[in-house]
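anyone else get weird line breaks when pasting these?? whatever heres mine. first is seq + C-alpha cells for prot A
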Amino acid sequence: MRKLIFVYNAKAGVVNNWLDIAHKIVSPTTYECDLCTLTHGNFSEKQIWKKFRNTDLIDMEFHHKDEFLKKYKSKWLPKYTFPVVLISDKQGLQPFIMSQDFKEIDSVEGLIERIEHFVKQLDANVQD
C-alpha cells in the first residue's frame, strides 16, 4: 500500500507551535518550513488543504520532524533536509518532494495539483 509521508520542518508541541506562529508573523521570509507556509496560515490549517487531505485519494501521514525521526529511526534512514514528502511503499521510503522543490510550488493549490498528478500516474501504471 502506497502512502505519502509529509514531514514539516517544525518540532511538535504547544510551545514550538506558538514559536512557529510568532516567527511566521514577525519574520515570514526567514521561516524555514515551506510546507507549513503552503498548508497553513498564521494560526491554522488552510481550509482547501484540510478538505484535500481528508479525501481518500491516497493515504497520507503527517509528522513534525522530531516525530518522524523518532518513528522511522534507523541506521539506514537517509539524512533528509526538511520539509520533505516521501513515498512509502513496499520498497521503503523514497523522495517525492524534496526541500528545494517547495521553492517551485507557489500555492497550496499547486501542491495539491502535484499530488493529484502523481496519483493519476500511479493509477495509469496500475492499469497497464
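and prot B, same format (seq, then C-alpha cells)
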Amino acid sequence: MKEIIQKEIQSISSLEERVIFKNLMEGVFLSLYDTNREMYEGLERRIKEELDYDKNRYYVKTGIVEREFFDASHHLLSPMDESDLAEKLYDMKEILRAVEEEGAFRLMKVMLRCDFLEQQKLLALQPVFEGVIETEEPEKEWKVEIRLRENREYLKKIEYLYLLFTRNGIPWQTANAPYLYKMADMIVTGLPEGITGKEKIRRVTIQFGEYSSMIQEDVIPVWNIQRLELDSIGFPIPCGDHQNYEHSVSLKKHGINHAYLVEDDRNVQSVSQEGERLRIVCKTGEAKKWGIYQIRSSQEQKIDRYTFPIMGNGREENFAEKYQRKWNQQIRTKTELAHFIKGFGLEDYVRYQDCQVEDDFPGNRETYAVNCFIPDEIRLRSTQKKLVLYFQPGKQERWLQRDILSFLVSEVQRIYPEYDCGGILV
C-alpha cells in the first residue's frame, strides 16, 4: 500500500498538489490503514489462540489425603468437597429422623482399600457392622446397625467437569481418578428402642471386624481444581453481531499459567485466555460475578509427601504422535497403540502386553467404563466386536490396578468407538 502511494506521489507534477496529497495520505488514509491492519492481526491472533490450545494445561490430577496430613495451603491440591474439612458432629435427633423417614443416616465416608473385584463382592454382600453411639446425657452405649453403601458424589463432580470442558470448547480427556471409585458411605440403618432424640452424643465408633484391613476412615479426596468467583473488569463491550457482549476477567492475582473454565449459564458463546485476562463472550450485557474453575498447573515441591500416589491423566507424546494428532490421523497398528498406552507413564501399576479382537469377552469383565456419563447414541454395544486389552500387574498399589486399567481402557475406547473395549490382568 505504501509503495502504491509513493508511485502516485511521483506521478503528480504540481508541487503544491503533491504536498496536499502527502498530508492527506499521512494524516488520514495511512492511519486508518494501520488501525485496520492492527485490528485484523488481533483478530487473527485471537482465533489462533482459541484453536491452538495447550492441552497440557488442562490435565486433571486427583488423589486421596488422610485428614491428619491435609494441608489447606497446598500449592496444587484442594478438597473436592469443602464439607469434608468440617469436624464430624452428630445430632441424635437428626439420626433418629433420617432413619425413620429415609431409612438411613450417613455416618461417615470411608475408602475401600481393596481390588475392584473384591470391592464388587463386598458391596453386593452388604455386610452388617456393629456401631456404638456413646452418649453423655444419659451416659450410655447404644448399639446400632450400620451398613456399607457406594458413594458416587465425587463421580458426579467429574461428570460436571466434563460438561464444563465441552461448554468451554475444550476437548475432554478421561480423568484418572481411581480413588473416587473406592469411596463408600457407612450408613445407620437400625436404632435400638429407647432412643428419644434428646441424647447428647459423645463419640461414635464402628467395629469393622474382618473388613478392618480394607476400610480406611478419615480420608479426603483432592484434585488440582479450585472454584473461584471473579468480577468482570470495566463495562461489557458490544460485539459486532449486536447480540453478544465481551466481558474481561483479571487473572493477575490467581496466576496466568493455570487453565480456567467458566461455569456456563447457557448464555456463554466463547471463552479464551489472553495473558492476564480471561475473555468471555455472552448475551449478558451487564457486568457480573463469574464462577470460574481454576485447573492448577505446577511442579511438585521437594517437601511434598503423599501416603497414596497422585494420579494424573497427562501423557508424553513423541514427535510422530504430535504429527498424527495435528493431522487427525488414527492409530492403526498395535505398535502405535502400545506407544499410546505407555505414554501415560503408568507402567509401575499395569504394563500393556497385547490386544485381540474377539466376538465376546473371555470370562467376566475386569474393568468398568470411566466415561459412563458420555452417552453413545449411535452404536450398540451388543452388536460390536470386543477389543480385549491384556496387561500384566505392576509392583505398586495392587489394590488400584484394575481401576487404573479401567482408565487406560476408557482412553482407548475414545479412539476406537467402533469396538467395545475391555481390559484383563494376566
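btw re prot B: The radius of gyration is 29 Å. The mean pLDDT is 86.
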